[in-house]
Specification:
The protein has 262 residues and is of the alpha/beta class. It is built from eight helices and nine strands. Strands 5-6-7-3-8-9 form a six-stranded mixed beta sheet, sandwiched between helices. The protein has a three-stranded antiparallel beta sheet with strand order 2-1-4, with helices on one face. 37% of the residues are buried. It binds adenosine-5'-diphosphate (ADP) and magnesium ion. The site of magnesium ion (MG) has 3 residues, from helix 2.
């Protein structure tokens, strides 16, 4: 990132991400070949999930991201994580990224919890000895029952699975942590524990991007909040101001479940 200011963790320049969707309901190979031989095109539709978006995130910033379903939040997060390539524009990331994009995305189903923790740690730039020091802590944080650390994660209950995923993401000391709707994982006790862990991370001058519908949590945790609307930045600024305007836009008022805590 030679052309990147050193205080920046993430720099996004004129980013667009498009998906092309087939809108033919019966699209088989035979079907497609027949059409092609007749010179017909398969009907497609282009979705502009992120639309010419530019954004700079300084190191140590906790940025909340809100927006309606389909606003492009997950697409933006996946592009920052390097999982999804930009259609246009540039994304530069300065630091090691740890992601919890959806529950356990990135977990290999046939590997044990321990091996997945090792892979997650390596991806975040840790050494094997650093990882093995952390492994017990991660399992303990996730309340994994005895013995489960060494069996394939596909045998985990949904709760165990998501607790381990959260625990890995927040315990491997990433420079940049991306959380996509991962806050409301687990039962009440785990939610409280994960919120407290996140609060600690937010206080440690790490760069964290949190996509969430828990607006009051975002108000508490974030330095600023970005409201994404139809792939564009509708507003970015002080958390309470942006979440207030977003709530007004949703037209549901402050008593709604949108303000519910984690
Ligand atoms: N893999 C995909 N293929 C086609 N369209 C997609 C895909 N993922 C998301 N989209 C579309 O892109 C838009 C943004 O989706 P997404 O980034 O998931 O929004 P959000 O996370 O804010 O709900 C939506 O219109 C969605 O239907
Ligand atoms: Mg999403």
């Amino acid at each position: 990132m030679s052309d990147m200011k050193t205080d920046l963790a993430i720099k996004i320049e004129n980013l667009s991400v498009r998906y092309t969707i087939n809108i033919d309901n019966k699209i088989t190979m035979k079907n497609a070949l027949m059409r092609a031989s007749r010179g017909e095109r398969v009907k497609t539709k282009v979705v502009e999930a992120v639309n010419n978006l530019s954004l700079e995130v300084k190191h140590g910033t906790v940025l909340g991201i809100v927006g309606a379903n389909g606003a492009g939040k997950s697409t933006l997060m996946r592009t920052i994580a390097g999982i999804l390539p930009p259609t246009q524009g540039r994304v530069s990331v300065n630091g090691k990224v740890s992601t919890l994009l959806a529950l356990g995305v990135g977990f290999n189903q046939s590997l044990s919890g321990r091996d997945n923790i090792i892979l997650g740690g390596l991806a975040a730039g840790m050494t094997l000895s650093q990882i093995s020091e952390k492994t017990d802590e991660i399992a303990k944080f996730a309340d994994l029952p005895d013995g489960f650390l060494d069996v394939p994660v596909r045998t985990y209950s949904a709760g165990m699975y998501s607790r381990v995923a959260f625990s890995v993401a927040v315990n491997i000391s990433p420079d940049i942590l991306l959380l996509d709707e991962a806050l409301s994982t687990g039962d009440a006790t785990f939610k409280e524990k994960s919120f407290n862990r996140l609060r600690e991370l937010c206080e440690q001058a790490r760069t964290i991007l949190i996509v969430s519908h828990a607006l009051s949590s975002l108000n508490e945790l974030c330095d600023s909040v970005l409201w994404l609307h139809q792939g564009r930045i509708r507003e970015i600024g002080k958390p309470e101001q942006v979440t207030d305007n977003y709530l007004k836009f949703l037209n549901v008022g402050k008593t709604s479940t949108a303000l519910e805590d984690l």
